[in-house]
Amino acid sequence: MEGKGKHIAILGAGESGIGTAFLAKAKGWTAFVSDFGQIKESYQKELRELGIDWEQGKHDFERILQADLIVKSPGIPDKVEIIKQAKAKGIKIISEIEFAGYYNTAKTICITGSNGKTTTTMLTHHVLKKAGFKVGLAGNVGQSFAKQVATEDFDWYVLELSSFQLDDMYDFKADIAILTNITPDHLDRYNYEMQNYVDSKMRVIQNQTENDWFIYNADDELIVNEIKKRMPNMQLAPFSLKTPQEKGGYADEKQITINIKEQFTMSIHDLALKGKHNTQNSLASGLAARILDIRNDVIRQSFEDFVNVEHRLEFVAKVNGIEFINDSKATNVNSSWFALESMEHPTVWIVGGVDKGNDYSQLKALVQEKVKAIICLGTENQKIIEAFAGDVETIVEAGSAMEAVAYGYRLAKKDETVLLSPACASFDLFENYEDRGNQFKNAVRAL
Q1: Cβ(109)–Cβ(288) under 8 Å?
Q2: pLDDT of residue 78
Q3: At residue 190, does pLDDT exceed 70?
Q4: Judgement on whether residues 89 and 170 belong to the same structural domain of the protein
Q5: I need a labelling partner for 124 at 20 to 30 A (CA). Which of 62, 171, 257, 402 fits?
Q6: Are residues 195 and 286 in the same domain?
């Protein structure tokens, strides 16, 4: 796309916004960056060095609406006034990923899903790197995709994509698309219509041809139904924990098996990632690796030595025989379901925060089986207390990570676990899920 003489307005000056500015400048666009909040000092410095005009704490409507193209941060919903006016004026609005895609020459593995996408992205990147690929990591993780397209020379990118990013992508195509699962999340952004959210996730396969691949969870009815409805023409590689797959991947209690080109098998006990949901993540990554003809010994080694992302079922410490686990990244009920499902000892569960319309009933059976006490860590805990009042004897409320950890230490015994897996967003008591996880870890280390 020719940028010379054209104006681009970039809304939101986080990692993706600054990266977009970087690429826009490199391609001859006249850029203007506008953030309704405050811009980080380090990002302000980058914009000054690039010689790009910017504003914070407001949106200059007149200036923004003169742009030929708008790139918006995934966090900005369509219902804000500036977006409404831009749409009414017919200005094209896209995501950073779409913009970077205009100039990207590398091949892409694009990963989305309600849960497991970060782990699958990191694991896939780890395997490709170990196999000697020139590979970048971007999207929801790592550095901005746009900035890397401007400055790096990769042959492949592994991109983690949220539904919000996919919503503003139109011409972009994944060479390999991965969909881990679809469960209710962010429904507030989709008019509380599940189908809108499903359509958003399915955009990961848009524009794919018969030479491309779609790796998907065959145990997820929503995904299977969408495939039947859409009859896509790319090559399909399903994975399952229930049924063997002739062309795809599957697992039983003992091993994972991948049938793409040549067979790959590995004992479940040798996987660095534990729990059923992580077996699914490993299957998805393994399928991508086999599609790319990565050798079995490289895949096996990568699966053995992978270290998972921070704040995702992260072991913090053992204090007097009590294990503390930080799963602050679990910002929805489904993520916490996976966390509880993988607990092997009686668990004191720290839960709560900003409720996104959560339905806790699907956790009831797991709570009865695994949880001995609940610590509510949020400002509005009534819904949690009512949901589990009959299932556990002890439910207490904590106003800080320090207080929650102190309760956990008191309520758990030797060979038991204290799990922070909030099932909620964090911005009532914390800046974000990272801040929540870090405060939890600091409190554990202070015991």
Answers
A1: yes
A2: 87
A3: no
A4: no
A5: 171
A6: yes
Residue range 399-440, pLDDT digits in tens: 999 999 999 999 999 999 999 999 998 888 898 999 999 999
pLDDT value for 59:
93
Query: Which pairing describes strands 107-112 and 135-139: parallel, antiparallel, or unpaired?
Result: unpaired
Of 43, 65, 94, the last residue of a domain is 94
For every residue of 300-330, DSSP letters joined together read HHHHHH--PPTTSSEEEEEETTEEEEE-TT-
Judge whether 331 and 425 are in contact, CB under 8 Å. yes
Q: Could you give the CA distance from residue 191 to residue 197 in angstroms, rounded to a whole number?
A: 9
**Mean pLDDT of all residues in the chain?**
93
The CATH number of the domain where 402 resides is what? 3.90.190.20
Give the 3-state secondary structure of residue 395.
Answer: strand
Edge-to-edge order in the sheet of strand 347-351: 314-319, 322-326, 417-420, 347-351, 371-377, 394-398
- The 10s digit of each residue's pLDDT in 324-351 is 999 999 998 988 998 998 888 999 999 9
Question: How far is the C-alpha of 435 from the C-alpha of 442, rounded, in Å?
Answer: 10
- Note whether 269 and 122 are same-domain residues: yes
The whole-number average pLDDT for the span 120-129 is 97
Backbone angles phi, psi at 53, to 5 degrees: -70, 140
Does residue 2 lie in a domain region?
Answer: no
Does one domain contain both 330 and 364?
Answer: yes
Domain count, the chain: 3
Last residue of a domain, one of 305, 329, 349: 305
Beta bridge partners of 59: none
Check residue 189 and give its pLDDT.
65
What pLDDT is attached to residue 379? Answer: 87
pTM of the model: 0.78
